[in-house]
UniProtKB/TrEMBL annotation:
<dbReference type="GO" id="GO:0006508">
    <property type="term" value="P:proteolysis"/>
</dbReference>
<dbReference type="GO" id="GO:0008236">
    <property type="term" value="F:serine-type peptidase activity"/>
</dbReference>
<dbReference type="InterPro" id="IPR004447">
    <property type="entry name" value="Peptidase_S41A"/>
</dbReference>
<feature type="compositionally biased region" description="Basic and acidic residues">
    <location>
        <begin position="475"/>
        <end position="489"/>
    </location>
</feature>
<dbReference type="InterPro" id="IPR029045">
    <property type="entry name" value="ClpP/crotonase-like_dom_sf"/>
</dbReference>
<protein>
    <submittedName>
        <fullName>PDZ domain-containing protein</fullName>
    </submittedName>
</protein>
<dbReference type="Pfam" id="PF22694">
    <property type="entry name" value="CtpB_N-like"/>
</dbReference>
<dbReference type="InterPro" id="IPR036034">
    <property type="entry name" value="PDZ_sf"/>
</dbReference>
<comment type="similarity">
    <text>Belongs to the peptidase S41A family.</text>
</comment>
<dbReference type="InterPro" id="IPR001478">
    <property type="entry name" value="PDZ"/>
</dbReference>
<keyword id="KW-0645">Protease</keyword>
<dbReference type="GO" id="GO:0004175">
    <property type="term" value="F:endopeptidase activity"/>
</dbReference>
<dbReference type="InterPro" id="IPR055210">
    <property type="entry name" value="CtpA/B_N"/>
</dbReference>
<keyword id="KW-0378">Hydrolase</keyword>
<feature type="domain" description="PDZ">
    <location>
        <begin position="88"/>
        <end position="170"/>
    </location>
</feature>
<feature type="region of interest" description="Disordered">
    <location>
        <begin position="475"/>
        <end position="495"/>
    </location>
</feature>
<dbReference type="InterPro" id="IPR005151">
    <property type="entry name" value="Tail-specific_protease"/>
</dbReference>
Length: 495
């Protein structure tokens, strides 16, 4: 997975309705290794002929072939997919941080499209679409039975055209009808501000081509405004991933030069690579080192990284690298767990196959796939609890997901956990959506408490057995610093 002009790494949460997907650009397809299965190919040819001669109505040859390719690729795992001309064009546009759509990150669940997260400031976000919503119909037409790719295509369209979504939401008895006008969405990759004197909130919503340059500009401006920065909160919550060079560049900004950021491993020789905190792995095509403009103080300033179940792929690369080097405290909840790399192989100038080709690993060799990053300090989304975030879909929940070598059989669900789920759903109905970076952002407030040496209110543990709670909520290296004062709301002061 070399990062060159012709080959650029990209990872992300998965197929998104007008958002970044995950792939590695490569213009050359690979030849089959070994003889082709001629008997099976004859069967495929026979079925093609039968459809042409016997089907009730005429079917276009090109459509049959494309659908056969799409079915073959999508049967592998949730992130491998065939991209036709339109989908390929939209994919390339999304890498640049702009696209036409409604602005939601999605996955499949029980044959329906499930909202992983609405993109901030998008039409879907403004219309009140929530994480966990199931999209059952588009313009009154049921989505049941359609592939995720086909559903996404139906959500795409021209700017200023309307689409009507029918939603099923937990806790609501009736379907919710939401009309949304499609827009060209420009995702603002980086936001930054002084939330208090001396403390910076740096949010990365998605890793794109301009992410590293935008981060450098914003941090440089903040340091010019207030040179005595005492702490940086790197907010990766609901960040679905994006370009690997962006993730490497963001990590390199805070790590020692030449540090290992991430490694990959797969069948092909070029999928067995290690990526370092060096300009060759993150600098844009224009050349030069954008990080050279950063104040030297960013290498040593105390850091907290905020993550949640919507933090995936490239954001997990960053969180994992900073955690492995103990450069930052990771705070929040366990991440999504997408630890696979997709490679985009062009079939024609206008079509391609996005194929999973490798797994990626943190600097210490930890596998992220189907597990994610476990925070050093678990903190709920709000003071009342984690809300729907605790019930969000993760990689391990996806059908046909790549297994993690450490995965065990599913743990049986206890009765008290079912009661806890009902409690969370009831609580979530009363909660307002969290505005990241606002004065009401509970997790951000806990990060600031950590910088100031004030007790941090940790996640609830009353529904977990003591051993499991200890393993999940506190990393071994921080246990000696934890002084729980209350079982339902343990308090931590991490040095």
């Amino acid at each position: 997975m070399g990062i060159t002009v012709k080959s650029m790494g990209l990872v992300g949460l998965g197929m998104v309705a007008g958002v970044a997907a995950s792939f590695q650009f490569s213009a050359l397809a690979q030849r089959a290794d070994g003889p082709l299965p001629l008997e099976e190919l004859r069967q495929l040819s026979d079925v093609f002929g039968l459809i042409k001669t016997d089907y009730v109505e005429s079917v276009d040859d090109k459509k049959l072939v494309q659908d056969a390719i799409a079915g073959m690729v999508s049967s592998l795992d949730p992130h491998s997919v065939y991209l036709d001309k339109k989908a390929f064009r939209e994919m390339r546009e999304s890498v640049q941080g702009k696209f036409v759509g409604i602005g939601i990150e999605v996955s499949m669940e029980d044959g329906y499209v499930k909202v992983v997260s609405p993109i901030e400031d998008s039409p879907a976000y403004k219309a009140g679409i929530k994480a966990g919503d199931l999209i059952t119909r588009l313009d009154g037409v049921p989505l049941k039975g359609l592939s995720l790719d086909d559903s996404i295509k139906k959500m795409r369209g021209e700017p200023r055209t309307k689409v009507v979504l029918t939603l099923s939401r937990k806790g609501e008895d009736k379907p919710i009808i939401v009309p949304i006008v499609r827009e060209e969405i420009r995702v603002q990759s980086v936001k930054a501000k002084l939330v208090e004197p001396g403390y910076v909130w740096l949010r990365i919503a998605q890793f794109q081509e301009p992410t590293v340059d935008d981060m450098v500009k914003k941090l440089t401006a903040l340091y010019a405004q207030n040179p005595a920065i005492k702490g940086i909160v790197l907010d990766l919550r609901n960040d679905p991933g994006g370009l690997v060079p962006g993730a490497i560049g963001v990590s390199a900004a805070f790590l020692p030069k030449d540090s290992v950021v991430v490694s990959t491993n797969g069948q092909l020789a070029d999928s067995k690579q290690t990526f370092y905190a060096q300009p060759a792995f993150y600098a844009s095509r224009n050349g030069g080192d954008p990080l050279a403009r950063l104040p030297a103080a960013v290498k040593t300033v105390p850091m907290v990284v905020l993550v949640n179940a919507g933090s995936a792929s490239a954001s997990e690369i960053v969180a994992g690298a900073l955690q492995d080097y103990k450069r930052a405290i990771v705070m929040g909840s366990q991440t999504f767990g997408k630890g696979s790399v997709q490679t985009l192989r062009q079939l024609t100038p206008d079509t391609a196959v996005k194929l999973t080709t490798a797994r990626y690993y943190t600097p210490k060799g930890r596998e992220i796939q189907a597990k994610g990053i476990v925070p050093d300090v678990a903190v709920d989304e709000t003071a009342e609890g984690d809300g729907l975030n605790s019930l969000r879909l993760r990689e391990a929940d996806l059908v046909k997901h790549l297994a993690n070598g450490d995965e065990k059989d599913a743990r049986p669900v206890r009765h008290d956990e079912l009661e806890e789920e009902q409690r969370i759903l009831a609580l979530a109905k009363k909660q307002k959506p969290v505005e990241f970076g606002s004065k009401d952002d509970f997790q951000l407030a806990q990060a600031l408490n950590h910088f100031k040496g004030v007790p941090v209110k940790m996640a609830r543990v009353d529904t977990l057995d003591e051993k499991r709670a200890e393993d999940i909520l506190v990393k071994p290296e921080t246990k000696s610093d934890i002084k729980p004062e209350d079982k339902k709301a343990p308090v931590s002061k991490v040095k």
